[in-house]
Amino acid sequence: MTQRVFVTGVGVVAPTGLGIAEYWAATLAGRSGISRIDDRHVGALAGRITGFDAARHLPGRLLPQTDVSTRLALTAADWAINDAGVRPGDRDEYDMGVMTSNACGGFDFTHRQFDKLWHDGPQHVSVYESFAWFYAVTTGQVSIRHGLRGPGTALVGEQAGGLDAIGYARRAIRRGTPLVISGGVDSALGPWGRVAHLSSGTVSTTDDPGQAYLPFAAAASGHVPGEGGAILVLEGGESLDRRGDRPRYGEIAGYAATFDPAPGSGRPPGLRRAAELALEDAGVTTADVGVVFADAAGTAEFDRAEAEAVTGLFGPYGVPVTAPKAGTGRLFSGGGPLDVVTACLALREGVIPPTPHDAQVAAGHRIDLVQNAPRERNMTVALVLARGRWGFNSAIVVRG
Amino acid sequence: MSLMTLEDLKTILVENAGADDSGTLDGDFAAQEFTELGYDSLALLELAAGIQRRYGIVLPDEQVMELRTPEAVLAAVNSAAVNSAERLRQTS
Q1: Which of A97, A126, B18, B70 is 20 to 30 A from A345, alpha carbon to alpha carbon?
Q2: d(CA A279, CA A397)
Q3: Tens-digit pLDDT profile for residues B53-87
Q4: Nearest CB to B19: which of A60, A124, A127?
């Protein structure tokens, strides 16, 4: 039950870079991928992926049946599998599982089909809508494309779900599936998707791409939605030992999830407890943790809650905290997995990437937010935090 | 003269269910099974929906599921077209 689980391959699709090399360079430089994506509306800033041509990466047969989010996820999965040096065809198909998270579904695809339904009638709606819209489609399409018939699951937990998928995959590996594809990717930046994001009430209505998503800042005004995420290949230590391979990125050493108490209960939010449980699960203490990748909601109330959770655990200014996601926007199911990838790279390279936009931290948050430039630091353990709307909290401990 | 040709079928199929670069739809593929060509049952339903939109010919889903090859689809479409033309002639 206590088999160690390692990240052996990654595929990154982010507004700041396609592929791990481009993404890591942009992240270290503190670059932002947030831009204005339409000229007419309030809240029209987004972390949009540019330069992604699905037809270059995927077979033409898959294009009519996939939303942009699924295309990004399939491409990231291809990259991750190649990166891990795994050839699914050479393995027992039941020894490979897929457990991904998704928070939005196939928004753009579905919007187009609704458009056809409304203007042209039901016979014009694609039969592929039957599965292209839903949360499990990433897991299903990755499974079909690579012939992976082991355990398959889809988890939905808004921005926390991506960490849950990785935690769940780790459990599946410990239960005997040697390899699981995990992570998450979302995209919902079309008109309908943006309206859905705005309904949260936490999207920034600031117009300046450099000022809209400033987590922990005095000027925090909400978040900017983005698209993308990361897909990871996770493998159990036993099968790696058998192959004589060495893990390339890092270990998923601890995981925990909690749920916030009902509003008005007077009890504290569950983020700190998720972090404590994940550290305990990893068998490490706060003294071992070299960096915290924050959820970084970007609203005063949620930033305060997270800053309190971090200072409660580590003491005031007790650990470097960073939020590279300020440069990608919140990626929903993709946010946590992308942070896990970034944490692996930070541990390996001994450097903490900065939080983009260099805004002044609000006076009450007694956290050591890494800004302006990357910070060199020898570290062995990173803590990744994520919160999902409606009360999800998840934490993962990564060991380098 | 048949209403719908293999070339028409290819156009509708690619438009609605996509195509790979594998070249399976080059040359005479009329007698090959759709599954060999890389098209599943949903692709067939997409093809039938495309045929309905272009020709106004409705092939019931149960019938579509029985059509394993492009030539079977062409036969079904063209016989449905002849039947409806015949009905039209009789009623006029």
Answers
A1: A97
A2: 6
A3: 999 999 999 999 999 999 999 999 999 888 888 88
A4: A60
